[in-house]
Amino acid sequence: MANATKETATVATSTRSKSSRSATTKAVKPSNGKGKSSEVNQKKVFVLDTSVILYDHSAVQNFQEHDVAIPITVLEELDNFKKGNDIKNFEAREFIRFIDKLSAEHKLQEWLPLNGKNKGNFKVLMNYETEGADATHIFGDKNDHRILNSALQLQEQMPDNKVVLVTKDINLRLKARALNITSEDYETGKIQDVAGLYTGNDTIEDVPANVINELYEHGTCEPDKVLTSVPADNHFFILKSFKSSILAYYNSAEKQIERVDKHTAYGVKPRNAEQAFALHALLNPQIKLVSIQGVAGTGKTLLALASAVEQRREYKQVYLARPVVPLSNKDIGYLPGDIKSKLNPYMEPLWDNLKYIQNQFAETSKEYQKLRDMVELEKLVITPLAYIRGRSLSNIIFIVDEAQNLTPHEVKTIISRAGENTKIIFTGDIYQIDTPYLDSQSNGLSYLIDRAKNHPLYAHITLQKGERSELANLANELL
């Protein structure tokens, strides 16, 4: 982990996985898979980098029976993060409180038992000279390299244990391996199979024509006429027979397959089946949490914003937010002006979509004027996510764009703020991440899709087809 000025400043936290397992605790074997049983059962000592603590303050509890240590350099770096409103500041404060409580009657330099059944021990590693390789001499004197030295020292002190450096900094993992230190990413909460991530819809071929006719005539049919097993709640389908097809979804409340009609939301019409599914979920008052995943140009933000404006009478306000990913390692506080001026550069894509919706109508029309009034009367509000903690959000639609740049804990924090009559919409592309130390497996949007599927209040749809323009599609398909 680098100095406090390093990209780690943009790292926020993750919620602790409901299971206490961690992929980092898997047995280490040689590449041929023929390791001895002593190697398989060898107790490990995990050395955690600052990036792991800022991602999950409860990380030290997630290594089962193995011991966990943090270098004193990590505590020094956390001291620079304890002030502020971002999730990373909350994580730093929570971890510091945890250490304070754990060490109330003990010395931190000694191994302290972690609370809980089948847990290992914990200690803080002080800075000492190593007898062998010295990372500060090889790479230079900086915090990253002091952390590497702590792992090297532990290897010398505990030769019978396997020492593993755990960090979300890829470059630090590479440096560790160059010094013959085993290094791994922090795996708790990661989605292992991103390629198989829930998409929210399926196509079913060879559906009997009479079933499709029944859906057209009555709007509903029994699930067993179409499906061989019970689908996820609010799952969508393209049902096809030899001559016709229909869009449908599984209504988990009524336990029926229902027809999905192509609705228009404030002048915005769905251009493909997935967009029709998305609008159906967005306009459904029974579904309180919606996520939309897809590459650039598939219409994620536009559909979310249009549906929110369409439902303006059902809610007091529409909140729009995007994670502020700092440029050149400077956070929002460095930008001039008030909070609105600071946020505007990051929120331009949201305004672009609002202008697109406005342009569906003539400037003299009531619809055009209503959108303008919503902005002027603050019925449609840009809000920073940094100040969401502690608030209770009632009677609003909350749209969070670029949600792939959030950590799982940030997503949980946002959802936990929901009061009565609140709908929350997350949009993003899990393969286009701008936040350091997050990837397609560990970001908050992937985590939400994987964990919330099959809940009656939740619906998800993955948009596949770009609808922005033929030129934009060229970029997605060929470049």
Q: Bin the helical content.
A: 25-40%
Structural class: alpha/beta
Q: Look at the structure and give the CATH class of the largest domain.
A: Alpha Beta
* Biggest sheet layout: 6 strands, mixed
Mean pLDDT, all residues = 83
CATH architecture of the largest domain: 3-Layer(aba) Sandwich
Number of helices: 15
Q: Show unreliable segments.
A: 1-38
Supply the number of structural domains: 2
Strand segment tally: 17
Rg value: 25 Å
CATH topology assignment of the largest domain: Rossmann fold
Quick one: CATH superfamily of the largest domain? P-loop containing nucleotide triphosphate hydrolases
InterPro entries: P-loop_NTPase, PhoH, PhoH2-like, PIN-like_dom_sf, PIN_dom
Organism: Pontibacter rugosus
Keywords: ATP-binding, Nucleotide-binding
Family: Belongs to the PhoH family. In the N-terminal section; belongs to the PINc/VapC protein family.
Polypeptide structure, described:
- With 479 residues, the chain is of the alpha/beta class.
- It has 2 domains: 7-27 and 41-184, 5'-nuclease (Rossmann fold, 3-Layer(aba) Sandwich); 201-478, P-loop containing nucleotide triphosphate hydrolases (Rossmann fold, 3-Layer(aba) Sandwich), CATH 3.40.50.300.
- It is built from 15 helices and 17 strands.
- The protein has helices at 37-40, 50-55, 72-79, 87-102, 135-139, 143-157, 170-178, 209-218, 273-283, 300-310, 339-358, 366-376, 408-416, 444-452, 470-478, and strands at 44-48, 67-71, 112-113, 121-125, 162-166, 182-184, 201-204, 220-221, 236-240, 245-251, 256-259, 289-294, 317-321, 380-382, 396-400, 423-428, 458-463.
- The strands form 3 sheets. Strands 3-4-2-1-5-6 form a 6-stranded mixed beta sheet. Strands 14-13-15-16-12-17 form a 6-stranded parallel beta sheet, sandwiched between helices.
- α2 (50-55) links the parallel β1 (44-48) and β2.
- α13 (408-416) crosses α14 (444-452).
- The two termini are 33 Å apart.
- The relative contact order is 0.13.
- Mean pLDDT is 83; it is low at 1-38.
